[in-house]
Amino acid sequence: MKLEALFGPPGESFLVLDSDTALTGPILESWMDSDAPFLVDNKEQSESAKKDLYYDWRKVREIDATARPPRFVFNSGQWRGTAGILTRDDFAPWVEWTFPRRLRHPKYFMPGDQGILNYVLNQKAMLEGLRVERRSIMRWPGRDLRGLDAGRLSRKAAEPFIIHWAGLKKARFSQMNGFDLLAFFEKVYYSRLPGGAPRRILASYLYTLSVWLREICLRMRLRTVLVD
Questions:
Q1: pTM here?
Q2: Which of 8, 34, 42, 58 would be 134's cystine partner, CB 3.0–4.6 Å?
Q3: Are 86 and 11 a contacting pair, CB within 8 Å?
Q4: How many Å separate Cα 10 from the centre of its chain?
Q5: Is 175 helix (H, G, I), strand (E, B) or coil?
Q6: DSSP readout, 3-66?
């Protein structure tokens, strides 16, 4: 769970990134002017999206009378934080600190850490004045890749963003939004490994095979459920 970074050495800054992200430039350097302890992506979402992707504050009021409409929401696949400001106790009403971690009220929050993290940061910001800065730091290939392409990256001329392929997985890279960017990062990565070219080809085949096998298993499970 990504929340663990919050409980490191007090004052330590950290950056959380999902595995399906890539940086188009020196993102940390672009944030040097920010002294807020938390920095998150600034995205506007509809009310229905907030309920589906984060939490429904009206329902949360059934278990927390202090719940209010969120001031902001953000994808937890990329955010900067500072350790020692929030504690496990701040999350204890919502998270069981067992192994594996469990949500105490899963029907009120999106599964995983995203809903809970958004809720706690919002509540702390509204009730206790916690500073959470919002900037446009993420680009989602399903909607907007303006000014970001392999040519600009190779010339180091692209603006610094975090590209996040959230929910955009395909069986083949060539079918992915922002394929040229993925191919660029993949080529750079394997160029630094011994036997990079054949390893890149093998990894591509194994990835495609894993996606197909996962799809077959899912269809078999669904068919079994329907038959039962």
A1: 0.88
A2: 42
A3: no
A4: 23
A5: helix
A6: GGGGGSSTT-EEEEE-TTEEESS-HHHHTTT---SEEEE-----HHHHHHHTB-HHHHTTT-TT
Buried b (16+ CB within 10 A) or exposed e, 37-74: bbbbbebebeeeebbebbbbbeebeeeeeebeebebbb
- Token duo for residue 31: 């944030």
Give the total number of structural domains in the chain: 1
User: What is the average per-residue pLDDT within 117-138?
Assistant: 97
- What the block records as the tokens of 103 is 């949500």
Structure tokens at 120: 């706690």
Is 188 part of a structural domain of the chain? no
Give yes or no for residue 225 having a pLDDT over 80: no
Q: Give the single-character DSSP code of 109.
A: B
Q: Does residue 164 have a pLDDT over 60?
A: yes
The reported pLDDT for the residue numbered 227 is 57
Share of the chain above pLDDT 70, in %: 98
In a domain, 183, yes or no: no
> Other CB atoms closer than 10 Å to residue 19's CB: what's the count?
6
215 lies in some domain: no
- Asked if residue 11 belongs to a domain, the reply is yes
